[in-house]
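Dear V.,

Thank you for sending over the compound details. I've combined the ligand you provided, NDP, with the protein sequence from our construct and run the structure prediction for the complex. I'm sharing the raw inputs here so there's no ambiguity about protonation or stereochemistry in the SMILES, which I know was a concern on your side last time.
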Amino acid sequence: MRLAVTGKTGQVVTALLERGEAMGAEIVALGRPEIDLSLDRSVLDTLAAASPDVIVSAAAYTAVDKAETEADRAEAVNARGPGLVAEAAAALNVPVIHLSTDYVFDGSKPSPYVETDATRPLGVYGRTKLAGETAVAAATPNHVILRTAWVYSPFGQNFLKTMLRLAADRPELRVVDDQRGNPTSALDIADAVLVIARNLFDRPDDAALRGVFHLAGTGEASWADFATEIFAASAALGGPSAGVSRITTADYATPARRPANSRLSTARLQQVHGVTMPHWTTSTRSVVERLVAATA
Ligand SMILES: NC(=O)C1=CN([C@@H]2O[C@H](COP(=O)(O)OP(=O)(O)OC[C@H]3O[C@@H](n4cnc5c(N)ncnc54)[C@H](OP(=O)(O)O)[C@@H]3O)[C@@H](O)[C@H]2O)C=CC1
Ligand SMILES: Cc1cn([C@H]2C[C@H](O)[C@@H](COP(=O)(O)OP(=O)(O)O[C@H]3O[C@@H](C)C(=O)[C@@H](O)[C@H]3O)O2)c(=O)[nH]c1=O
Ligand SMILES: [Mg+2]
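Below is the predicted structure of the protein with NDP bound, written out as structure tokens.
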């Protein structure tokens, strides 16, 4: 099975390159300059040349705050680009697995979100990602849209790496404690995507395998809980750690609003695709281990 993935250095694409081999899949990473999602060209030709069995749409404009002042660019990369990728999948008659986000929700629900809950993004990033979902679904019924959340890994930029970096020269960090969600390892996402891709490949006519699914680490946390776990794991290995001062969203001004609750129920994914995600604390410890070992 060969997977063509959009993006070259992103967290999820890097995790897929690492995990693909172990799972007997070939991963072809296609990003700039061959595929630039902000330009309306060459997407079909470049994907066709890779002869994929499944296309994974993982590239995105992920700078949540910067998106507030770069809405056109976010719209191109997060909405129009994935639409072109899904049109290419339709033309090549292969499934597309498209990554989306918990930030499509407004956070007002008191319990974990299910796939059929109403969406209402609070910012440009979430709004353009939701438009991407719509574009993908309009292009082909042969799609899986995976809403994931709070992605961290040893790769690229993420909250876990930011915490370790800031802890190196500060004794205490202020971290919001009133936004709750599901920290999710990109390596666990890669493992799940490989299982889902195999299911779609093996059962091309099974409509029940298609549609929107929530994919996130088991268990839940606030950003302050996540930071506390990161520092406990790091300190145990002699790595950087800091005290966590628990603050509210009102005490931490950012250009973009973020949902207070973006916990995702993964029951549908478990039932339909047989994917069970590891607990976020287990995966957090293993990512911290890799990062601390790399700098020791
Ligand atoms: N990060 C997170 O916390 C979350 C992410 N998601 C979603 O998961 C998916 C994967 O995220 P993640 O791996 O963390 O993303 P990253 O921010 O780590 O990487 C973004 C990727 O998108 C590529 N990209 C950006 N702009 C363009 C463009 N114009 N043309 C082509 N490629 C482009 C980058 O390319 P290059 O390699 O050239 O830099 C990079 O590979 C995304 O769809 C994201 O919206 C969902 C929830 C949480
Ligand atoms: C760095 C830092 C952040 N924060 C807060 C700000 C924010 O509310 C929260 C998370 O900050 P970040 O900017 O790292 O995370 P953010 O960019 O909001 O992360 C989101 O990215 C996109 C791509 C997604 O799809 C989401 O699922 C989610 O992962 O933590 C602190 O309270 N203290 C700090 O020192
Ligand atoms: Mg960010």
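A first observation: DSSP finds nine helices and twelve strands in the chain.

Warm regards,
I. M.
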